[in-house]
Each structure stands twice: as C-alpha cells, then as structure tokens.
Amino acid sequence: MSTNGSENTTPLAHRVPDLGALELLLAVARHGSLGRAARDLGITQPAASSRVRSMERLLGVALVDRSPRGSRLTAEGVLVTDWARRVVEAAEVFDAGAQALRGRRDSRLRVAASMTIAEYLLPGWLIALRSERPGTAVSLSAGNSSVVAERLLADEADLGFVEGLGVPAGLDSAVIGHDRLVVVAAPGHPWARRRHAVPPRELAATPLILRERGSGTRQVLDAALAADGGLADPLIELASTTAVKAAVVSGAGPSVLSELALGEELAARRLVRIPVEGVRLRRDLRAVWRQGPLPAGPARDLLSLARPS
Description:
With 309 residues, this protein is of the alpha/beta class. Helix content is 43%, strand content 21%. Strands 5, 6, 7, 8, 11, 12 and 13 form a seven-stranded mixed beta sheet that branches.
C-alpha cells in the first residue's frame, strides 16, 4: 500500500486506531463529554483519556478539545469521526456475518463413528448433548474405522470416533477411553469346556467369526497375532457387531468382540468368555477430526462429553 506516493511497509494494524478507540471517538461525538462516553462504553474516564491521547499520538493530530464545559471534537476530529463511523459500520456487518456463520455451524452436527462406539457409547453422549444444545440437529453415520476416516477427509463429518490402533493420515485425535477385546464362544463350544487358556498360536490358527477388514477390532486382532502367524482366514466375515454376536450365539464358531458389546450376552450365559494367554487385546478409543485446531461449536461440546474428566 502506498502513502503520499511512497511505500509504507508498516503493517496497517500499527498505523490505524483499534476498533475500541474508534468506538470511543464516536461516543464522544454523541455525548459531547469524555466522561459520559466512558460510562457508555463501561470504562473509566482516565482510561478513556489515555485511549484518546494514544489515538492522537498515532494519527499525529488533535482530535478532542477538553474544557470544564465538556469535550468537543476538533475540525480534524470531526473528519476522523466520519471515517471511524464507516469502519465501525463495516465491523458491525462483519460481526453479523460471523454470527450467521456460527449459527449455521451450530445448527447441525455430523458425526461418524465406528460400530461399537456408535452402538454402545454415543447414544448416552448425544442425549447429554441434546440437553446442552437442544437446537442442534445431529446426524450419525456408522461404519468401520476406515469409513469414518474417509468421511472426515471428504468433509462429510465434523467429528468422528474410531477404535483402531492409530490415527489415520490427515486426522488429529484425542484418546477418549479404552476398550478390551474378549474372545467369546457359545456355551456348547469346545473352548467353553477347557480348563486352560487358549494360547496365541491356537487363536491365530482358528477360523473365527470376524468383522470386515478396516474395522478397529480386526486391526487390533491382526496386530496382536502377527507374531503368531497372523489370523487364519475368517470362518464368517460380517459387517456389524450385532451380526457377529448372533452368529456366535448360534454356535457357528468363536469370535473376538469388544467388552462394551458383550455385557448382556455374558450375563445371560448366551456367550462364554474364553481365557487367552499372552495376547494384548486392549485398544484406545479415539475422537478424530481433520488436521488443525480442535473442532468448534457442538462438535467441541460432544468431544468434551466423550473425553474422560
């Protein structure tokens, strides 16, 4: 930007009074008194006087004549006040636009979650969010951890929840809890009658009823058994935890599922927990979002509800 034909490299913010100072000048013009202008803006008169002096030093002209009868604008002050009014009006337009954007953002929340979190944790969080933000419409899409990442990266979700081993590329995350995977079988399965724990190599070699590739459960299990030959080909591969549980209850074969999903079946003895030795089947539960600052608005509120205190 040029000034009087010469290049001025000083940033504009260092050459122009701030918005608060311009609002004070307009208040002086309205009230004809620095003291009343200060009260109108909720500041002390000494603070107002100091702000006017700083503005005058910055601009290099006197703006206000002070006298026992009050304060009046100088000729230069009248001109600067006219410019200030335009700046403040533009700032009001800017603020109204920003409020409209916040209102549009806060009126909806798109959540993507892997199946276990969507079925067993999110309902409680969303009920709590509803009490805090009754005007926010929430849409929830459930899929495996890979699908959650895809939706976030495609800007089809504002916040996601996953159960896998790590953070997909392009996303930031926060650990919100922990989960344990449990080997289960129907009461009539041979493993249910064993006196000793199933060793890792036998678990790896046994065809299991499993979730599809890309699910957080499958990722953890693949990693846990990699040193023991890796997972055998699945006996059955299903796309939901509910379907896997139904197949195991029917006696089709054993499976490995989240402890969060098994409370009812284990309590009713429709499924039996099978001890396994030498395998770490613990995983982190994570909130994920596109790389950058923490989510804002209702997404941040949901994240706060989900994170441990």
